[in-house]
Amino acid sequence: MTSAIETFGLTKRYGTVTAVSDLNLRIEPGQVFGFLGPNGAGKSTTIRMLMALQHPTTGRASMLGLDAQADAVAVHRRVGYLPGDLELFPRLNGRQHIAWYARSGGLGDRSVADRLVDRFQVVTDRPVRELSKGNRQKIGLVLAFMRRPELLVLDEPTSGLDPLMQREFEDLLRETADEGRTVFLSSHELDEVQRSAHRIGIIREGRLVAEDTVEGLRRAAPQKMEIRFRHPVDQAELTRLRGVTVTAADGPRVTLNVSGEIGPVLRVIASHDPVEMTSRPADLDELFLEFYRRPLVTEVPDAG
Question: Are residues 121 and 257 located together in one domain of the fold?
């Protein structure tokens, strides 16, 4: 099966600064792929290379089996794109944008656009320059989805949307994947991505530091343990254990993050006469932060 998106050592340098380094991704059709990272991590640069808006320094990318650079015109006919720095014609209203985009793409049937306008309560009768960020973003969503493309590339698509419209957007993503179409969703909002994505890639300083399903990442997350002892204990006994980090200590109360086997930790805890203990898996927010606290490595860890 042809991948929806595949990158091969994709790299972008600006002088001595490396924005994206040796990125290797394979995204299958019918998936929502969440591309996570804070601002400046390399997400938008990656997207601009996928959309042939920038040339990679080295490496290459394919979109729907076509070379992203050499076959850019053919790719753009089959891809819906919402850039993170959406620019619209300030004097035109939403209706005029939709009409112009339909004509330029040879789209005769605008029924999908009409349904999206109703669904997202798009303001179509006022010039774009008079609209809020959220209302401009809604127009961008209509333009990206109205041709029902095989692949959608969306850069921070919910920026400016209120919570109700964000949930409506998440429903649209699920419907799109159920139809066998593919979504590449770039965001720094973990909650948004984990509710919608089949797989997640986390990028840090231009490098892919993790890639897995949401459940796979959750299984890899460290456990959080909270223990109350009868008396204060020497934290060094715990921190010497492999995979153990003391995240908080207040007298006899200690909070730990534990990665890997918990048997050695339980034996040390039991030797100090604990009064009570709770344990739970870390949520993805904590795991996401953990990837940014760790020393940067050059290989993607196996989270599965």
Answer: no
Looking at the fold, whether 192 and 228 belong to one and the same domain comes out as no
Cα separation, 277 vs 256, in Å, equals: 11
CA atoms within 13 A on the CB side of 221: 21
Q: What is the CATH number of the domain that holds 83?
A: 3.40.50.300
Q: Which residue segment(s) compose the domain that 238 sits in?
A: 222-281
Condensed to tens digits (0 to 9), the pLDDT of residues 70-107 reads 999 999 999 999 999 999 999 999 999 999 999 988 88
pTM, full prediction: 0.81
CATH of residue 231: 3.30.70
Structurally, the chain folds into a number of domains equal to 2
For residue 180, give both structure tokens.
């066998």
Helix (H) and strand (E) counts in the chain: 11, 14
Residues 7-34: b if buried by 16+ CB within 10 A, e if exposed: beebbbeeeeebbbbbbebebebbbbbb
Q: Where are the beta strands (DSSP E) in 143-273?
A: 151-155, 182-187, 199-204, 207-213, 223-229, 244-250, 253-258
